[in-house]
Amino acid sequence: MSKSRFRAIEGTRDYFGKDGERFDKAVVFAGELFVRYGYDRIRTPVFETTELFARSIGAATDIVEKEMYTFTPGSDTITLRPEGTAGVVRGYLQHNMDKRGDLAKFWYEGPMFRRERPQKGRQRQFHQVGAEAIGSSDPLLDAELVTMGLRYYECLGLRKARLRVNSIGCLRPECRPLYRQLLRDAIRPNLDKHCKSCQARFDRNVLRIIDCKNPECRKLSAGLPKSHDNLCPECAAHFEAVKEGLMALGGGFALDHTLVRGLDYYTKTVFEYTHEALGAQNAIGGGGRYDGLAEELGGPAIPGIGFALGVERILIAMEAENGCSCSYPLQVYGVALGESAHRAMSGMIARFRAAGLSADMDYGRRSFKSQLRSANRRQAMVCVILGEDELSRGEIVVKDMSEGGGQKTVSIFDCLDEVKAALP
Ligand code: AMP
User: Fold this and answer.
1) What is the CATH number of domain 17-175+231-320?
2) How many Cβ atoms sit within 10 Å of the Cβ of residue 117?
3) Residue of the nearest CA to atom 15 in ligand 1?
4) Per-residue confidence at 355, pLDDT binned at 50, 70, 90?
5) How many angstroms is it from 309 CA to the middle of ligand 1?
6) Percent of the chain residues topping a pLDDT of 90
7) 357 in helix, strand or coil?
8) What is the per-residue pLDDT for 325?
9) Which fold has domain 332-422?
10) Contact indicator for 385, 397 with CB cutoff of 8 Å
11) Confidence of residue 323 (pLDDT cuts 50, 70, 90)
C-alpha cells in the first residue's frame, strides 16, 4: 500500500482501466441513443437550493430526511443534487420553455450525491444518465421513454435487464389519497408486527411500507390492496394505454404492485429496471411520470416523465455479462532507447495521433525490456522501436504485437504506412 494517508472518501471512488472505459461507453452510448429519440443535452448545476429538493422529492422521503449533503455558506442553504429531475424542471421553468407549448425532451449525465450507507452498487457520489420529457401526458410517451431505457441497456450489450412497471395514481382525492387510506386501514391491525421504519412510515409515507425489503414485512404486505387495482378512471385508462404501448413497442415488462418508488413527485406510471448481477441493490435504473411537479415548483400544470439510470450499477452488470467488450485499443506503442531517439519518438507519436491512431510511449526513459512490458500490459497492437543506431540510419522497427506477428525494419518516412498496414 502507498504511504500517502490520503484516500478517496468512503462511498466515492476512482474510475480507471476497464471501468473507466465502461463508464465512458455508458455515457457516450446514452447520448447517441437518446438524441435519436429527440432528446437534447442539458447540463444543470451540481448544487441547487435545498428547498428545490425538499419541495420536489418530498420532505418525508429518505433522501430529504437523511441523505442530502446540505451546506449553509453565508445565508444560503444549498444542497448537492441527490437526483437530476428537480434541476431539469427548475431549468425548464426558469428559461420559460413552457411558453413554447411543445414537448421538451432533455437528457443529462453527471454525479449525484446521497449520504447512504455505502455497499456494493451503493455510493455516496454516484452517477446517472437520465432523460426527461416535459409537456405531454400521452401514455404513448411513457411507453416510448420506458422502451428507450430498455434499448439503451441492449446497446451496452446487457441482455439481462428486466423491466417492472406499476401505476401509483394521481393526487385527486378519489385516487392515491383514497388508496393511501385503504392501505392504512388494511395495515393498522398489524402495524406493531412491522419493522420500525415501516411504523415510522405509516403516517407520513405509507406507500413505502409495500416496498419494504424486510422478510417479515413482506409477508405481512402480501395481501394488501394493490395501487393498480385502485386507480381513478383516468389513471386506470392511462395505465392500460401504457401497457398496450409497451407491448406494441416490444418492451417486455412485469407488473409489480410493490413498486412505489420513494419520491413524492411521481404520479401514474412508475417503473424500474433491474439486473440479476446486482444482488440486494438490483435496480439499474428507474423513473416515472411527474404530472404535478412543475406546478409544485411554482410553474403551470405541465406533465412530465423521466428516468435516471445508475452508471455504477450498469458497470457491474456490464462486467458480469460481457467482461469488457468495450475496450478502446491502443494501436501503437513507441519504444525508444537513447536521448535523441526518445525525442524523435515523441514527434512520431504526435504524427500517429494526428493521423487518427491511438498512440502512446513511455516517458520514464526505462530499459527496452520495461518499455516492451508496458506495451504488453497496455495490449498495444503494434510497437515501433527506435534506438540511436536505427535513428542514424533513418530507420525504425515495426513490430506486430499479435500472436505470431513478425517485425521488420523500415524507413522512418514509411513508418506511418507500415504501421497502418500492420494494424488489423
Ligand atoms: P432512484 O431514482 O433513486 O431510483 O435512482 C435511479 C437509479 O440510480 C437507481 O436505479 C440506481 O441505479 C441509481 N442509484 C440510486 N442511488 C444510488 C447510489 N447511492 N449509488 C449508486 N447508484 C444509485
Assistant:
1) 3.30.930.10
2) 9
3) 310
4) very high
5) 7
6) 78
7) coil
8) 54
9) Rossmann fold (3.40.50)
10) yes
11) low
